[in-house]
Amino acid sequence: MKDSEIEKLITNNDDDKLKFYLSNALEKSKSIEKESKQLGLVMILLIALKYLVDTSKDASLSYFGLAIKELAIIKNFIPLVFAFVLLRYLAISLHKQSLSKIIKLVSFKLFDHSDEGDIHSLNLLRSIMPLSIYGEINRAFLINGGCFGLVLALPIIILVLFVPLAFECVWLWDLFLNFWSVDLYV
């Protein structure tokens, strides 16, 4: 939603409807955060599985009662699955960002906070929103730190955003270089 649409929603509805909307938006934000955490764990497991398969000397792996027999096929499809999980994670993150903006504006209206930089407003948002690493980095470094905070936050932001993409690029580069030797039709 654009800012003008959010403002129109706020002005055209009474407080009861806004409270209902805010509670539903908060529930959705919490479910998005839960799914985001699950997708993050899936990405970590896929990275571990990829390197476990790469370093395995056997033709099959068996851990905790789970047996994987065709390692070559698994090795070739992990980047595809990882790309899907990464795309889903990015889509959820963008949706959560827009939802956070809506929650912030509606809660400021309901609790009569007009100054967004006010410390009470920030504490209000922290108390109702689920924990977000990006939000905490934004508050700690960018809002409070100014230019110095930006210099400190930039490496952290780059690591958090681009490390999954780096894994995907390295894996796909390996597949592109060895495309003709990949035997998918076993």
Strand and helix map with partners:
Layout: H1 3-12, H2 15-55, E1 61-63, E2 66-68, H3 71-110, H4 119-128, H5 133-177
Antiparallel strand pairs: 1-2
Rg result:
22 Å
The coarse overall form would be elongated
The proportion of residues forming helix, as a percent range, comes to over 70%
Question: What series of H and E elements makes up the topology?
Answer: HHEEHHH
The main β sheet shows up as: 2 strands, antiparallel
Beta strand %? under 5%
Structural class estimated from helices and strands: mainly alpha
Q: Order of strands side by side in the largest beta sheet?
A: 1-2
Question: For the terminal residues, how far apart are their CA atoms?
Answer: 49 Å
Low-confidence stretches: none
Helix count from the secondary structure assignment: 5
Report the average pLDDT across residues.
79
Domain module count:
1
Please give the number of β-strands: 2
Description:
The protein has 186 residues and is mainly alpha-helical. The protein has one domain. 78% of the residues lie in helices and 3% in strands. A hairpin with a 2-residue loop joins strand 1 and strand 2 (66-68). The N and C termini lie far apart (49 Å). The model has no long low-confidence stretch (mean pLDDT 79).
Question: What would you say about this model in short?
Answer:
The chain has 5 helices and 2 strands, in the order ααββααα. It is mostly helical and 186 residues long. It is elongated.
